[in-house]
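Feature request, filed as a ticket because there's no other form

It would be nice if the structure record came with a short human-readable summary line next to the tokens. Right now we just get the raw output. Example of a typical job, pasted below so the devs can see what we mean:
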Amino acid sequence: MLKILLVALLAALAAGAAAAAVLTSPWWWLAAGPLILLVLVASYDLVQRRHSILRNYPLLGHLRFAMEALRPELQQYFIERNYDGRPFDRDTRSLVYERAKGTDAEEPFGSELDLYRPGSEYLTPSMAPRPVRTDPPRVRIGGPDCTRPYDMALLNVSAMSFGSLSGNAVLALNTGARRGGFAHDTGEGGLSEYHLRPGGDLVWEIGTGYFGCRTQDGGFDERQFAEKATYEQVKCVSLKISQGAKPGIGGVLPGAKVNAEIAQVRGVPQGKSVISPPYHRVYSTPRELVRFLARMRELADGKPVGFKLCVGSRREFLAVCKAMLEEGTTPDFIIVDGAEGGTGAAPLEFADNVGLPLSDGLMTVHNALVGVGLRDRIRVGASGKVATGSDLVKRLLQGADYTNAARAMMFAVGCIQAQRCHTNTCPVGVATQDDRRARAVDVADKSQRVERFQEATVKSALQIMASMGVDDPSALRPHMLLQRVDPHTVRSYAELHEWLTPGQLLASVPEDWAFDWEAADPDRFSR
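Raw output as currently delivered:
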């Protein structure tokens, strides 16, 4: 309302100056002309649907685009920073925007990266490249205990809850997923109408608060879960054990944000702060976890069921593997969340110091499953700063079958990283429950951007694989990814890391794995 009043005031000033020019002196046109132009621009800003920031901040929003025109200097300093204040790669964010808008193009003059910096990684091209696939491969999720498998895309929308995101942002993400034929993870905030209305494929995430399938005392409600898990839009169910940016702690949604709609979706009292506990009530041992996952699959009428975690102790994950072997059942998928994943609600010390980075977590999970002979039954997803085709290919090389993106998808919807996620004052309406701000997200336009970004990124990944002589992700091997160890030495992932063979932990345990394997207990989480 304030922005409309300001535009009205500007219009009144323009009208007054024009009247003065006609009635008194033509010199008034020097003031009336610019004022009329500003009124026309501001009016257009309010009604256009392409730029969210201009809808919320007519006229002033143009200053942001002016700074972008001066990139990289001013843009790098003032705009391109992530949620916790650390610089976010300028080229990556710009690439996401360009792909979402459909304006992705090559830029001349070579790379700006320091290719000799220790830690730099390189994918190896082949002297015999392959034709680029025009049919993106999909990943069949569903082990022997699953009766309703799902074919997952190589890149999907990662977990972001309604409550953290506005209803319009969720609508845009799910509509984009439906249009592009990929999956949309709901986050732990429950199933809302914004997830269900467009009809896009959903991975329903269940966290420690059991939102959407919650008893009055905060426990897991089997009846509610079974009812909602059978919705046609729900293709998979994921039990969230931990989140990359803040593993081991629960989330807090302040009471001021718990309006009637969010209270209904989450099954909590309106106006009261919602605190997610750091642990699950439904299991306390690896064996109980495996049994509960099997029960969830039964309640979901045979749909794929899995869990998501930020990897910490290798011994604990091996304990879960032992429980799978002894119980004779497995989840259908495991999503590995990297500690570098972003959120606007994570304590800085957790984001910087707790949990394994995605690469290490992926290789730990992949090798453990290979070592116990279960890798062919369980698909592995990767989430954590996946924004480009090269990111996608690297994750597949490190052990993933498919990937999920959160921050890049937010960019596609219009996020500018204003670092106001926790304040409810997101300037582009993406991370807010303020209806006046959220209306800036035009669902029709932003859903097309989500679709275009996903399509272009998968296409880029397929182009990179073709240049490596590979036409299917299953042919990717660790030796195809190189890492610079120091300014004079480069090693492949095959040389830098240990890769187990199928069943190796059951036959002849490698020395480096022996201590954790022997200590892993399927009946307790021991450190």
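Something like this underneath would help us a lot:
The first helix runs from residue 2 to 23.
The first strand starts at residue 121 and ends at 123.
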